[in-house]
Design goal:
Radius of gyration: 24 Å
Length: 314
């Protein structure tokens, strides 16, 4: 099935939950995101970044309703207590509170610990919290670092939690894409559905491409979670509203194949390739001979010959 890419700014970082108020942000120049994560229940999102000097950060925004009301210091102390309970090698160097560009103070801590291979690791960590939401930003390195270092102090000074931020389309879309990438399709699907609905009700001009991309991902997420009926309904509605877009037909063919309806799959694949000129700029028609929806039918000579003829037309 087709894939779509998520683009990010590499120096200004933001994290937001899909179902709860609050946005965490900071600036860290020279870092590139190498990993992202999210919990299926919607209560935590995180990213990992790394720079050329070998310093890595972990940033998390998460809910702690059982400890509300939170403060930055309370969030820090709770995290350290948990960390020390499972890591006797942790040695705190310093703790303090600094003012940031946001309204809430940032509680920072510097400490050393040992990695699983016994080597010393240096950590500088900052927390900002309010109500039931906590932000945790951790930098770690094999070389000495501290929250008082000029570069890291600048990062923590930019670190803030906007507790009044309401989830936006982008927040929901990014959270859904992280879940999708982690193959948490069942959790991702309804978030993509929310994002599509938000686009459609906005009635903004020029949204056709975004609606196509998100509808694709919405339907594929439902399909890969096992809800083929829902996926089929999404692509059929997509065709009714936008009959020229080929990937709606292609994905409907995938649903056909999952239900062992090869006649339907052929019909919808033909309709898809008849409209191949209408793919989104930068996209191309998928190769059906490598698609997991169709490869189980490799021994069906007639069907496979048909797929190969389409592959030659891409």
């Amino acid at each position: 099935m087709p894939k779509h890419r998520l683009r990010r700014d590499e120096s200004a970082f933001k994290l937001a939950l899909a179902n709860h108020a609050g946005e965490l942000s900071w600036t860290a120049e020279g870092y590139e995101i190498v990993e992202s994560s999210a919990k299926a229940n919607g209560n935590e999102v995180g990213i990992r970044g790394r720079n050329k000097e070998g310093i890595t950060f972990l940033g998390f925004l998460f809910l702690v309703p059982e400890q509300a009301p939170l403060t930055s210091a309370k969030c820090r102390d709770g995290a350290l207590s948990s960390e020390k309970g499972s890591n006797s090698a942790l040695t705190i160097q310093s703790t303090s509170e600094i003012k940031s560009s946001g309204a809430l103070p940032v509680s920072v801590v510097s400490y050393t610990t040992k990695r699983s291979d016994g080597k010393l690791m240096y950590v500088a960590r900052g927390f900002v919290a309010s109500a039931d939401v906590c932000g945790d930003l951790e930098f770690y390195s094999d070389s000495p670092i501290s929250a008082n270092d000029a570069v890291l102090k600048k990062v923590f000074s930019s670190y803030q939690l906007d507790e009044k931020h309401a989830p936006t389309f982008n927040d929901i879309f990014i959270y859904a894409q992280i879940l999708y990438k982690e193959q948490q399709f069942k959790a991702a699907a309804p978030m993509f559905e929310r994002a599509v609905t938000m686009l459609k009700v906005s009635h903004e001009k020029g949204q056709t491409t975004r609606i196509r991309v998100l509808t694709d991902q919405e339907g594929m997420a439902y399909g890969m979670s096992g809800d083929i009926r829902k996926a089929r309904s999404i692509f059929e509605n997509g065709i009714a509203e936008d009959p020229d877009y080929p990937l709606y037909y292609y994905n409907l063919a995938c649903a056909d194949a999952e239900e062992k309806d090869l006649a339907g799959a052929q019909k919808h694949l033909r309709a898809a390739f008849d409209r191949k000129a209408n793919v989104i700029k930068g996209e191309e028609m998928p190769d059906p001979t490598t698609d997991n929806s169709f490869t189980p039918y490799r021994q069906n000579k007639q069907f496979w010959s048909f797929l190969e003829s389409l592959q030659a037309q891409r």
